[in-house]
Fold this protein.
Amino acid sequence: MNTEQLTAFAREIRVTTLRELAVPGFGHIGGAMSIVETLAVLYGKHMRYDAGNPHWQDRDKLVLSKGHSGPSLYAALSLKGFFPADMLTELNKAGGRLPSHVDRTKTPGVDMTAGSLGQGLSVACGIALGDRMDGRDSRTFCIVGDGELNEGQNWEAVMFAAQFKLKNLTLLVDNNKVQLDGWTNDVMSIGNATGALESFGWHVLECNGHDVGAIDAAITKAKSDSRPSAIILDTVKGKGANFAEAAAPGNHHMTFTAEQIELAIREVLK
Ligand SMILES: Cc1ncc(C[n+]2csc(CCOP(=O)(O)OP(=O)(O)O)c2C)c(N)n1
C-alpha cells in the first residue's frame, strides 16, 4: 500500500472500530484509537502474514502487549480477512471470540494473550529469538503503552534484546501520555525513554504516531538496522473519536451512546 492507501486503510480501521464499540456501548476506546495508524501501516504494508493460515510459522508476529486495545486490532484483522466482519459484534461479550483483552486462543490473528501489562516485550523477545534459532527471517513487533513502561519487566526485556542482538524485534511505544487513571507524567513519568533505550544499545526513532508516512519510514529504517529497534510514537489517546479525545485523561474505558459514535464517525469521514 502507498501512503494514500494507508491513510484510507487507517480511516477504515477507525470507523470499523467505532462501529464495533457501538454494539456493547462501552469499551477501551482511548488506547484503541491511538494505535490505529500503527496498525494500518503494520497490516497494510510491513507485516508478512496469511489471513487464511494465521498460525503460519514464517509470518511476522504482533504482540499487542497493551492487550486492552483489542478493538482496533480486531477491526484491522477482520478488514484483512482473518475473520468475517459480523464477528465484530462479539466484542466484550461473555463467551465471545473478541474479549475485552486480547486472547490468542479465541481470535484468529492474535499472536499473544495479554491484559496483565508489562509482559509482552519479554514474550516478543522469546518469539524473536526463537525465530532466529529456527532460521526464520520473521520479524516480531510489540506494541506497549507509555503507562505500561512503568512495569519493570519491560526493562529486563530491553536488556535481554540488546544482549541477544535481536535485530528482528521492533518495539512500538504508543506514547499517548495517558494511562488508566491520569496523565502518565502525574502518575509515574517515563522520563527520557529514548535516552534510556539508547543507553541499553537500542536503535531508537521518534515519530508522529498518526502520520502513516512517518510510521512507514520509521519501520523501514528499523528493519535495516542491526540492533533491536524502538519507535516512540507521539499519539493522542482517543484520536479521531471527538468525544473520547475531549474526555482525556478520563478516556481509558468509557460508555457511550450510539449517537456519539455516529457523530464521531461523521467527523472521521469528513
Ligand atoms: C500489571 C497490570 N497492572 C495494572 C493494570 C491495570 N491497567 C489496565 S490499562 C492500564 C493503563 C495502561 O496505560 P498505557 O500503557 O499508557 O495504555 P493506553 O493509555 O495506551 O491505553 C492499567 C494501569 C493491568 N492491566 N496490568
Summary: The mean pLDDT is 98. The longest helix spans residues 3-22. The beta strands are 26-27, 61-64, 140-145, 169-175, 178-179, 182-183, 203-208, 229-234, 254-255. The CA atoms of residues 47 and 209 lie 17 Å apart.
